[in-house]
Design a protein that fits this description.
The chain contains three helices and nine strands. It is of the alpha+beta class and 168 residues long.
Length: 168
């Protein structure tokens, strides 16, 4: 049976532009990688565990933020590694400067699971996100496209205030 992960893809509208919240993995392997290295906040879950519960737990472990809202499931994606990733989109707004991640130890050194987070518009996100997760951005765009044209009913808040600390 393939490994499974569950994650959340928070999104928002800022000045009419759809943005997604992604995280950059911590540790020495990822330290110098940027384009193609970012991810949705996610983690593995055990057989019998509710995937949405796991996704919410992993989001909190990787960001330090509790998350609630209207979770909409996306189509699971089988990654190149064979792992199947279950993902939900959820409207939200989080300050990347406030991210506080769990840590892991590698060769006697402690590293954060996530070393930074940021909001990206979809064009930026497509450059930043891991290749195996691109389908989540495509599905989010399809699901929100009709709602963005003039009605503002996408579920993504239009935060017209200026960028918060740490926004890119």
């Amino acid at each position: 049976m393939p490994k499974t992960s569950a994650g959340l893809l928070p999104y928002r509208r800022r000045n009419g532009v759809l943005e997604v919240f992604l995280v950059h993995p911590g540790g020495p392997f990822w330290a110098t990688k940027d384009d193609g290295a970012w991810s949705i906040p996610k983690g593995e879950f055990a057989a019998g565990e509710d995937p949405l519960t796991a996704a919410r737990r992993e989001f909190t472990e990787e960001t330090g933020f509790a998350i609630d809202g209207d979770f909409m499931p996306l189509t699971p994606i089988k990654q190149p590694s064979g792992k199947v990733v279950y993902t939900w989109i959820v409207p939200g707004d989080y300050d990347p400067a406030e991210v506080r991640s769990n840590t892991f130890t590698l060769k006697g050194r402690e590293y954060p699971e996530v070393d930074r987070a940021a909001w990206f518009d979809l064009a930026q996100a497509r450059r930043k996100i891991l290749r195996g997760q691109l389908g989540f951005l495509d599905e989010l765009e399809r699901l929100t496209r009709g709602n963005a044209a003039g009605h503002g009913g996408s579920g993504a808040p239009d935060n017209s205030r200026g960028p918060s600390a740490g926004d890119r």
